[in-house]
Amino acid sequence: MGNAPITYGPKLAEGKTKIIYAHPDREDVVYMLHKDGLSAGDGARRNTLPGKGKVACQTTSNVFVLLERHGVPTHYLDRVADNVNLVKYCTMIPLEVVMRRIATGSYIRRNPDVPEGTRFDPVLVEIFLKDDALHDPLITDAEIVEKGIATQDEIDILRDTGRHVFQILEEAWAKLGVTLVDCKIEYGRAVSD
Fold it and tell me: What span, in angstroms and rounded, lies between the C-alpha atoms of 183 and 98?
């Protein structure tokens, strides 16, 4: 990480936990600033925790470095400040891909016939449309293709990559004595591709 202040280009997007800024000189990369904000319930509950952006940035960097070491392509390039990553500029694929090892939470609410704590082996993969206004509904492969969000081949890649990522993280967390119950991954298409 350099000590020089970062010169940002225009703000491109802002979510609940991050702000994306253009790079002033390059079109293929952007800055991802991690905010100190916390949110829950599709952003219905919000709060601020000083220093959270720094911890989130470090955690994000560590996870992406681990994934890259295991051959998983990511948009990550570098950590350039305590709370800022330099990443490849991508267009978001509006899907949330959720891998579940253990049945709990929202899965149980949607599937009350499945006992809490049921272990999924292989990991269960669910895909949701990324749309806060609709509360991120579950979406089928056919609906994804029909809406023009992704092809079936791309959906298969998202699902396979998600399982691979879950396996890598599950093994890493287990070494720390932590059980990875589920995780959500979001994908994008690099603008330079």
Answer: 6
